[in-house]
TrEMBL record:
It holds the Pfam family SpoIIE. Gene3D superfamilies: PPM-type phosphatase domain (3.60.40.10). One of its GO terms (molecular function) is phosphatase activity. This is Serine/threonine protein phosphatase. Keywords: Hydrolase, Membrane, Transmembrane, Transmembrane helix. The chain crosses the membrane at residues 103-125, 132-151, 157-175, 215-236, 248-271, 277-296, 308-335, 347-365. It comes from Leptospira kemamanensis. SMART domains: PP2C_SIG (SM00331). Residues 571-786 form the PPM-type phosphatase domain.
C-alpha cells in the first residue's frame, strides 16, 4: 500500500509540474493547423489534415515560416509540401489561434501515456528497488513528454534526443537483465556521454532540419538493433530452458512486448512508404500502452499479492469508497431526474444529509463489507474453512511440537495444493530441540538473507526477485532452490514491536495456477496461527530448560557439590592448599580449583549471601555454570558476566554474591583476576612483606556490569591468599573479632610454612580463638604459591 501511495503522490507532482510547464513555456499564439517535427515531418494529429500525415514541409518553406516573428496579422499561409513519392504540392493553410492550455487536450493521450510510464517506474522502484527498470520506464515517459513539447512548442530538442539515445542504451542493458544477468555499471558513462553529445549537437543545430532528422534516425536504428538482439536472446533462452504453462506464456508475452517497443522505429526505418504517421494516433498510443502492460506481466508475477494479503482492510476501504460514491451519484440521479424534490434542489442540503448518514453508518457498513468479503472469498469455500478449523484446533490440543507442525504442513499442502511448506527460523531459536524431519530449516541470524527478512514487513514473492542482482539474486536463488513461491513473516505477538521470529515459506502450486484471494487469506491465517504456536513452544522450551536446571540441582548431592573439590593433577610451578568448613552442614561459600592446562589453573572463591540449603543450591548452580562456560571457551570477564546475568534473571536483585577469581599462569609469571565485591587479595613475597589488593568491582546479581581483569606480576616464591568473611568476622567468647590484622599477623608468623601446611594451621588458630563459641559463618581459605617452572 505504501508503494501505491507513493505512486499516487508522484503522479500528482507530475501533473502539477506539467501544468505549470505549459503555463510558462510560451504564450498563446497563431500556428499552422497541424503539428510537425523540426525536420518538417507532419505527424498524425488532427483529422482535418489526414491527407498530409507522413508528408514533409519543404525545408526552405519551413525556414521562411519559422522566421516570421509576428503572426497576428496573418490569417493564412501558403506552403509547399513533399509527399512520400518525392512530389511537391502547394496548399494554402488557415492559421489557428491556439491557447497554451488547448495543447493539453490535443495531446491528452500522449500525456496519459507519459504519466502511466512514470507511475510504472515509480511502482517498480518502491516495490522492488529495481533501478534499471525504473530508469527505463522513467526515460520512456520523458521521451513521450519531450516529444509533446517538441511538437507543440518547438523546444526541448535537447531532452528529446537525449532520452531517445538513453532509451536505446537502456534497452541494451535489458538484454542481459531479462536473462538474469547484469552489465557492469561502468558502461553507463560512455553511453550517457554519447547521448549527451548527440543531444548537444541537435540543440546547437536546431535549424538544420536534415541533421536533426538524421540524428533521430540513428537513435531509432540503435533501438531497432538492440530490440532485435533482445528478441533473439529471449527466443534462444526460451528454446534452451523450455518453460511450461504460465512460464512459457510469460516469456512469449515478454517477446511480444519488446516487438511492440521497437514497432515505431521499425516502421520509420523499413516501411517509409507507409510508416506510423499514416495511421491514427490512437493506434500509436494503444501499442505503447500494450507494451507497458505486457512488459509488466512478462517480468513480474503476483505483483499485487502483498497488497491482497497484508492489506485486506485496504481492499475493504476501496470497496467502501466505491459503494459511497455509487450511492451518492445514484442518489443525485434519482433526485434530479426521476423524483425531483423541490426542497432538495439546493445541493448543499442533500450533501449535508448524505454526509451525516455516511458518518453514522460508516463503521457498521465497513464491518458488514468485511464480513461479506471474508464470506465470499474464504468462508464459503468449504475446503478452506475445513483446513483453517483443523489448524485452529491445534492451539488447544495436547500435541507435541513435531506432531503439530506435521499436521499444519500436511493440511496446508492438501488445502491450497502446494508442493511444500518450510518454517525458516534463526539458528539460535529452539537450540536444544531436535527439528529434523518436520520441515524446519535453521539459518544463521547474522546471514544477509535473514537480515533481509527482518528488515521487511511484507510478503516476499520469489518471482519478483527473478531479474535482480546482489542480495536480491542471492535471495532468489535461495528461495527458488527450495521451490518456494511466497515467504510470509510470522511475528512475535508478545513484543510491542514487529519482531519476526520465523518465515513461513510456501511452495509452488502443483497445478501452476495463481493463488486465489481466498487461498491467500487462508495462508495468512495459517501464518498467524503458526506464529502463536512458535511463540508458545519458545516459552515452553525456556520453562523446560529452567526446570532441567532445578532438577539437576535437586538430584545432585548438595553437600558433595559444595564441599568436595575435584582436585586437579599437579600444575607445574604452582602449589596450593585450602580449607572449607560450612557453618551448618552445607556451605554458602563457593570454592573451585580447575586446571586449564599443565601450567595454568583457575581459582574461584565466592560467598553467596546467607548459608544453608538455599545457598547450597546456588553454589551448586554456579559450579555448573562455571564448568559449562569454561568448556565453551568463555573468557574470565565473560564468566563473571554470565554468573551476574544468571543472578539477575532468576532473582531480580534479591540474591547476590561476591566472587574473586583468577587464572594462575606459571609460564608467564602472572595472576589475572577479577574481584566482584569480595575481600582483598593478599600477596606475600619471600621476604615476608604483605600487600593487600583491595580494588573491587560491583557485586554479582545487582546490576548489569562490564567486568575487567586486573593483572598481578609474580616473583618466584610469591604466595597468594584468598579467604571468606567467615575468617575475618569470626568472634571469640569475649566478642572479640578475628579481623584482617590477626589474619596478617598469622601469615607473618608462619611465613616460612608452605601453602599446603597453612590451611590446617589456620584452622587450629581459629578454633583456639573461638574457644567454646560455635562457628557462625562458613570458613574458606586457600593459599597458592608460585615457583619457577
Amino acid at each position: 500500500m505504501r508503494e501505491l501511495a507513493i505512486t499516487i503522490l508522484s503522479s500528482l507532482l507530475f501533473f502539477l509540474l506539467l501544468f505549470f510547464s505549459f503555463l510558462g513555456v510560451q504564450n498563446s499564439s497563431k500556428r499552422l493547423p497541424f503539428y510537425y517535427y523540426p525536420s518538417g515531418l507532419i505527424v498524425n494529429i488532427g483529422e482535418e489534415n489526414r491527407s498530409h500525415w507522413g508528408n514533409s514541409i519543404v525545408t526552405s518553406e519551413l525556414e521562411t515560416f519559422e522566421s516570421i516573428q509576428d503572426l497576428t496579422n496573418l490569417d493564412s499561409y501558403r506552403l509547399k509540401i513533399r509527399n512520400s513519392d518525392g512530389k511537391v504540392y502547394e496548399e494554402e493553410f488557415q492559421l489557428k489561434d491556439v491557447r497554451k492550455t488547448d495543447v493539453l487536450g490535443v495531446f491528452f493521450s500522449d500525456l496519459f501515456l507519459a504519466f502511466f510510464s512514470l507511475a510504472i517506474a515509480v511502482y517498480f522502484y518502491y516495490s522492488t528497488r529495481d533501478a534499471l527498470i525504473f530508469g527505463f520506464f522513467f526515460n520512456f515517459g520523458l521521451i513521450i513528454l519531450s516529444n509533446v513539447f517538441v511538437l507543440a512548442f518547438k523546444n526541448s530538442i535537447f531532452l528529446f534526443i537525449l532520452t531517445l539515445y538513453l532509451g536505446s542504451f537502456l534497452q541494451y542493458h535489458l538484454i542481459y537483465r531479462l536473462r538474469g544477468k547484469e552489465i557492469n555499471s561502468k558502461w553507463l558513462l560512455p553511453q550517457i556521454l554519447i547521448s549527451f553529445i548527440m543531444a548537444m549537437i541537435a540543440s546547437q543545430e536546431r535549424y538544420d532540419m536534415v541533421l536533426i532528422e538524421r540524428i533521430a534516425i540513428i537513435a531509432h536504428a540503435i533501438t531497432v538493433l538492440f530490440g532485435l538482439i533482445n528478441i533473439i536472446a529471449n527466443v534462444f533462452e526460451l528454446l534452451r530452458s523450455k518453460p511450461q504453462d504460465e512460464s512459457l506464456l510469460k516469456r512469449l508475452v515478454l517477446i511480444i512486448s519488446i516487438l511492440l517497443y521497437v514497432a515505431l522505429p521499425t516502421s520509420i526505418l523499413f516501411f517509409d512508404g507507409y510508416p506510423w504517421f499514416y495511421v491514427h494516433r490512437s493506434l500509436f498510443i494503444t501499442t505503447y500502452l500494450l507494451f507497458i502492460l505486457s512488459f509488466f506481466y512478462g517480468t513480474y508475477r503476483y505483483t499485487f499479492v502483498p497488497s491482497f494479503v497484508i492489506f485486506t482492510p485496504s481492499l475493504v476501504t476501496l470497496i467502501l469508497v466505491g459503494i459511497i460514491l455509487g450511492t451518492y451519484i445514484g442518489s443525485i440521479f434519482i433526485l434530479d431526474y426521476i423524483l425531483p424534490i423541490r426542497y432538495l434542489k439546493d445541493r448543499w442540503v442533500f450533501n449535508f444529509i448524505f454526509l451525516f448518514l455516511v458518518t453514522a453508518y460508516l463503521i457498521p457498513l465497513k464491518l458488514k463489507v468485511k464480513e461479506l468479503f471474508d464470506y465470499w472469498f474464504f468462508e464459503k469455500n468449504p475446503k478452506l474453512s475445513a483446513g483453517i478449523n483443523k489448524i485452529t484446533a491445534l492451539l488447544s490440543s495436547p500435541l507435541s511440537m513435531r506432531k503439530t507442525i506435521l499436521t499444519i504442513n500436511n493440511t496446508v499442502k492438501d488445502t491450497v495444493n502446494v508442493s511444500n511448506l518450510i518454517i525458516l527460523i534463526p539458528g539460535d531459536q529452539f537450540a536444544n530441540t531436535d527439528l529434523r524431519n518436520i520441515n524446519f530449516m535453521r539459518i544463521s541470524p547474522q546471514s544477509e538473507i535473514w537480515n533481509y527478512f527482518k528488515s521487511t514487513d511484507r510478503v516476499t514473492v520469489t518471482s519478483h526477485l527473478e531479474y535482480g542482482i546482489g542480495l536480491r539474486e542471492t535471495l532468489y536463488n535461495f528461495l527458488k532452490g527450495l521451490h518456494i513461491q511466497l515467504a510470509f513473516p510470522a511475528y512475535d505477538s508478545s513484543s510491542n514491536k514487529k519482531n519476526i521470529q520465523a518465515m513461513i515459506l510456501i511452495g509452488e502450486k502443483l497445478d501452476k495456477k495463481y493463488f486465489s484471494i481466498g487461498e491467500l487469506k487462508f495462508i495468512n491465517e495459517v501464518v498467524k496461527i503458526s506464529g502463536m504456536l512458535l511463540e508458545n513452544y519458545s516459552l515452553l522450551e525456556d520453562e523446560i530448560q529452567k526446570r532441567k536446571i532445578v532438577r539437576d540441582i535437586q538430584t545432585a548431592s548438595i553437600v558433595d557439590n559444595t564441599l568436595r573439590l575435584i582436585l586437579p593433577s599437579e600444575i607445574k610451578g604452582i602449589d596450593y592448599g585450602y580449607i572449607s568448613k560450612p557453618a551448618v552442614g552445607i556451605s554458602g561459600d563457593y570454592l573451585d580449583i580447575i586446571p586449564i592446562s599443565n601450567t595454568k589453573m583457575i581459582v574461584l572463591l565466592g560467598d553467596v549471601a546467607g548459608h544453608g540449603l538455599g545457598t547450597g543450591f546456588l553454589v551448586s548452580a554456579i559450579k555448573g555454570i562455571v564448568r559449562e562456560q569454561l568448556r565453551n571457551g568463555t573468557s574470565l570477564e565473560g564468566l563473571f558476566r554470565e554468573i551476574n546475568s544468571f543472578f539477575r534473571a532468576r532473582y531480580k536483585g534479591n540474591e547476590f554474591m561476591t566472587l574473586l577469581g583468577g587464572i594462575f599462569d606459571s609460564t608467564e609469571n602472572v595472576f589475572k583476576y577479577v574481584n566482584a565485591g569480595h575481600l582483598s587479595l593478599i600477596e606475600m613475597r619471600t621476604d615476608g612483606q604483605i600487600k593487600l589488593h583491595s580494588k573491587t568491582q560491583r557485586v554479582l546479581g545487582i546490576l548489569e556490569t562490564d567486568y575487567h581483569v586486573q593483572e598481578l606480576k609474580l616473583l618466584p616464591g610469591t604466595k597468594l591468599f584468598l579467604y571468606s568473611d567467615g575468617i575475618t568476622e569470626a568472634f571469640s567468647e569475649r566478642d572479640e573479632i578475628f579481623g584482617e590484622e590477626t589474619l596478617i599477623d598469622f601469615l607473618h608468623y608462619n611465613a616460612h610454612k608452605s601453602v599446603k601446611e597453612l590451611p590446617a594451621l589456620l584452622d587450629v588458630r581459629m578454633t583456639q580463638f573461638r574457644g567454646n563459641r560455635e562457628q557462625s559463618d562458613d570458613i574458606t581459605f586457600i593459599g597458592l604459591s608460585f615457583s619457577p617452572n
